[in-house]
Input
Amino acid sequence: MSYLEFLQAHGPRMLDGALITLVQFVLATVVSVGIALAFGLMRLSPNRAVKGFATVYVEIFRGTSLLVQLFWIFFVLPLFGITMDKFTAGFIAVGLNMGAYGAELVRGAILAVPKGQWEAAKAINMTPAQRMRRIILPQAFVIMLPPWGNLVIEILKGTALVALISVTDLMFQARQINISTFLSVQTFGTALILYYVFARFCVTPFMRSFERKMAFKIGRA
Amino acid sequence: MTEDMSQYPLQLEGDNIPMVRFQNVRKSYGALTVLDNLNLDIDMGEMVTIIGPSGSGKTTVLRMLMTLETINGGVIYVDGEPLTHMEKNGVLVPASPAHIRRIRSKIGMCFQHFNLFPHMTALQNCIEGPVQVLGMPRKKAEARSLELLDMVGMADKRDQYPSRLSGGQQQRVAIARALAMRPKVMLFDEVTSALDPEVIGEVTNVIRKLVDAHSLTMLMVTHQMGFAKDISDRVCFFFNGAIEEQAAPSELFENPQRERTQQFLNAVLEAN
Output
């Protein structure tokens, strides 16, 4: 069987999987960004309880395996009465995990905004909330975009694990095809290339152009 | 060490209350005392300049007044009311954030490094405070900010981002931004120190204009002795966290009484 024949036979199924991977990736990214922003800000709270809670969250999700977290959310939480379908459990788990890394990016970027900006905002008598929203976050956003480019690719690759709770993503389909055809090289080779192409030619250029646009908007370009 | 707060009036009364009063103000960082028992009154409309060697606490005076630094003792009054404290059951207690914001609205500040918001144009920098903080309608804020930008000679650069402006231009926009909040007291913290020599004049000229045109009360820290001499009503020489000598500029510069003042002025004049 030539590779072309392999693609004719199994390509559509791979693409179906790739589409699920794309949706999982987008939803997990949305969850990550929300979690990162919330917990990044909480990590900087003057309130000890809030700060402590955020620290514990980041430590747990960053310090344990994503696969274990995924299994917890899908197999263990139902024992406590929290049930999710596998598709939801998939992107939620990836989002919660990557969001913990993102929280540190948010925190770091906020702290990297020059002290003079905080003082200038205070000198025009802004409230702490106004200062954060209008002055600090827009600048922190530009600072954190390059490391987010990295994290977003991690999110994409992290979604491959949802195959292990039977979400029918690219990796799941590849394994199914492999079981029925034993064409491991073609199957996993194709999966490898699809992930790479998606990361290298879709995600990265998108993040780069986003960085450029934001840098221009902030007057740095 | 707790201080007996009953020695401080709840508010200043009388005909001639100062715009700003520092009463027994102390500031220290750990064991290091930066300002020791500072007492200083600044009258309404007065232009007071602070000079002195670095580390003498000059900038700290402005930063405490802008509430960028907390104080460790004493009380600061602005326009007759305590800034750092507020009345509770007949005594002064440390001020709440809301109280500080209310009094702080009377104070504006310009910084050594301008600190313009880099993601906003010159005009946006100026209207940000009036629109967000004062709740002024955007149109009105723009009209007024344009007047101010015109006054500092920056109206034609209103749509430029700070990164496109020279240091002198940025500082002039920063002055307009501070004035847009209609402060009663303006603080200038070494506003020409980070500028190239050839553009210092464009900033000092703006400050001269303010001195001539407004009834603003101003407090300035500077190393420009000639400028200080020209425009100040009073010059305070700081040394080691205290006022060593204060007088009208003609007196302090021509006929300094204290040895440390003489040494400082000699050293500065020699350097020039």
In short: The mean pLDDT of chain B is 93. The first strand of chain B starts at residue 20 and ends at 29. Chain B touches chain A through 28 residues (CB under 8 Å). Chain B is about 35% helix and 25% strand.
